[in-house]
Automatic annotation (TrEMBL):
It catalyses: ATP + protein L-histidine = ADP + protein N-phospho-L-histidine. This is histidine kinase. It comes from the Bacteria. The keyword Transferase applies. It comes from Candidatus Accumulibacter proximus. Residues 36-268 form the Histidine kinase domain. It is an enzyme of class 2 (transferase). Residues 1-22 are annotated as: Disordered. Its EC number is 2.7.13.3.
């Protein structure tokens, strides 16, 4: 796609993660994540507890008025309205908590459960597109593929698919805000006999320079409470640099889209 090709040629700000030192230590990582999850869960669970307590009190008042034969129509209407509002808040809070726990499970999952096998990269990504395109429902955004056939890898397709899914979701959630019709292109090419470079390129809003260096930090998001958990890119970073044995960097500037570049060995390291 011409716009995306121009975006690649344009001189962008490039960020190569220096190693995120605390993340590489298993004990530090787990401790940081547990503390972060506990902090993030405090709000939705706190709201749930408060609303449940208020709802319980309203039930007692309603029951008392009913048993005493003093229940008025205005009381019933008020109880129903407050009850509906309470249920909506409980649903939102519990959904937020469940989403955080789900992302935490992705981070904490034992990577030894990932299955290693030989696979054709293009075929694997094509199979993914069936699921990925469900993320584009009710939008005019598009996803395109530029990966040559016959690019064989001996690696872990499950974690790789998770990385691609998270990068695509990041573009949809952040890159295309205020954009009616965006495009994501997944590109890949072999580098010699031992490596493959995989790019996820979008023509979205781009990333502010001042936040570029924080993209792979856990719980960092510019859309907290608006569909961003702050864990998607952190998960991608850990999978790329861990089980897949590669590196990830990002090129972007405001207004000119973003390009995530994965450099991966075609044969994953032994574990």
């Amino acid at each position: 796609m011409k716009a995306i090709e121009e975006n690649q040629r344009r001189k962008n700000t490039t960020f190569k993660p220096p190693g995120l030192p605390d993340f590489e230590n298993g004990a530090d990582t787990l401790g940081n994540l547990v503390a972060g999850v506990a902090h993030e869960l405090n709000t939705p669970l706190g709201n749930t507890r408060i609303v449940a307590s208020l709802l319980s009190e309203q039930f007692r008042e309603f029951a008392a008025a009913f048993e005493a034969g003093k229940l008025r129509r205005s009381q019933m209407d008020g109880f129903l309205n407050r009850g509906r509002e309470a249920v909506e808040l409980l649903e939102r809070s519990s959904a937020r908590a469940a989403d955080l726990v789900g992302h935490f499970k992705q981070v904490a999952v034992d990577q030894s459960s990932a299955r290693r096998r030989s696979f054709d990269l293009r075929r694997t990504v094509e199979e993914m597109l069936v699921t990925l395109r469900l993320m584009f429902k009710r939008t005019k955004h598009q996803i395109e593929l530029d990966i040559p056939a016959g690019l064989e890898m001996d690696s872990y397709p499950g974690p790789l698919e998770q990385v691609i899914t998270n990068l695509v979701a990041n573009s949809l959630t952040h890159g295309f805000v205020g954009i009616e019709q965006g495009c994501i292109e997944l590109q890949a090419q072999a580098v010699g006999e031992t490596q493959v470079v995989l790019r996820c390129v979008d023509n979205g809003a781009g990333i502010p320079t001042e936040t570029l260096h924080r993209l792979f930090e856990p719980f960092f998001t510019s859309r907290l409470g608006q569909g961003g958990s702050g864990l998607g890119l952190y998960i991608a970073y850990n999978l790329v640099t861990g089980v897949l044995g590669g590196t990830i960097e990002v090129e972007s500037s405001p207004g000119h889209g973003a390009t995530f570049i994965l450099t991966l060995p075609r044969t994953a390291p032994d574990r």
